[in-house]
Design goal:
heterodimer; A: alpha+beta; 2 domains; 3-stranded antiparallel β-sheet; elongated; B: alpha+beta; Aspartate Aminotransferase, domain 1; Arc Repressor Mutant, subunit A; Herpes Virus-1; 3 domains; globular; binds magnesium ion; binds zinc ion
Chain lengths: ~210, ~250
Amino acid sequence: PSTSQVQRGLEKLTAAQVDQKTAEVVQYILVKDQKKIPVRRADLVKHVIKDYRTVYPEIIKRAMQTFEQVFGLKLVEIDSKNHMYVLVNNLDASTARPSNPKMGLLFVILSVIFMKGGVVRENLMWNTLKKLRVDPGYLEYVRVPHTEPVEYEFRWGQRSDMEVSKAQILEFMGQLLEQDPQSWTQQYREAHSTASSSQASSSNHR
Amino acid sequence: MSRELGDGHRRFLQTLMAVGITDEQEARALYQHCCDTHTMQCIPDKLDDFIEAINSRLQPMFMQIRKGMSEENGRQYYALVNMAETDITRMTSDYADNELELFRKTLDLIVSSENGKASSTDILNSTDTMTSKKLKKSETEHLLTRLVQDNWLCERRGEYTLSTRCIIEMEPYIRTMYQEQVKVCHICHNIAFQCQICENPSCGIKIHNPCVARYFKGRVEPHCPACDDFWPHEIPGTNETSRYQNNVLYLL
Ligand SMILES: [Mg+2]
Ligand SMILES: [Mg+2]
Ligand SMILES: [Zn+2]
Ligand SMILES: [Zn+2]
């Protein structure tokens, strides 16, 4: 729609109607973003914009303002042919707060695997895992060869190897169980060997 | 009134969006972090004002950062909730109609129970009265797993309770839908599911387990704060760390 068409369209709507539609667009895009699904303009128009097609440019402009002013996010087109959009972070990633290890069940799970010598059978872990949404890459879940019935086991995933320090895990276990980390001699040695302790001590992600 | 936000506010909101819910201690630490990194003045007691500023800008989006207590450990939590007027709003994009019907039936069971819990057996049986496409046993089990993963329900030994996030987000919905049945804690006045009930039939007040622990702590003989009858229930401990430690030790 042209600028004058948008203008005429807006005159037919109340401010509350435009606000309501903007809110729906913002929510729709946030939900997609949470699931890491890019938003197609055609879907947005079909499922959310609906009868407000003529004022689409105004609605999207307001949604973008909201993302920037309230959420610190920017709506960007990643595919100009199919009109696909994603949200990117406007804030400096390096200033994100490292996640609190005490809050992370993932940390507990990684600890269990580490303390058990690097591998844990499924039955031991399953109940804990069910309560946890694990980001892909942090945990490896693989079939144990030659078992009947089939059994699975957990190991640290690549991202954990890169982003989580074993020394930090031991420190955490020490705090949790009120025990000196050095009392787990084998794990302490592994955690402080040069190869495994060189990784980042904390990970930032949103 | 809508207020101007800084990057500190935006950082706080982004972090809360990523984690969904956070306890008060972590929220305070995050507030401090946001102020430090974005050179804003951090006034220790003003976390709620800081959040109020964010809420003033979220309100037109029908979203809000809301505070509530965990029925498990009695601590305060902050959650980002959706307030759009349709019921069970945030779930409609994630769950099919018949799955939402079963969730509502689970809510019915939990609200009408004495202890704020619904057993997996009772939930499975409630599929018999579904009006939308009936869920099979395996589908119901899978759905329950998802509801736990998505942090709507909690599960312990085959019994389901509402998560803290779910209670914070759905409190207005539950108060509207279950006006007659809804229980309110005599101590903190919030909605109560897992609680103790005064056995004096003319009294019958409810108190959350953590509120019981706090209220009766150090009292030799517990009496009902409303009718003064003897409080016959076991007084739960306030120490939550030891239970957490036990769980970890059990795994090892
Ligand atoms: Mg994450
Ligand atoms: Mg979700
Ligand atoms: Zn209470
Ligand atoms: Zn009483």
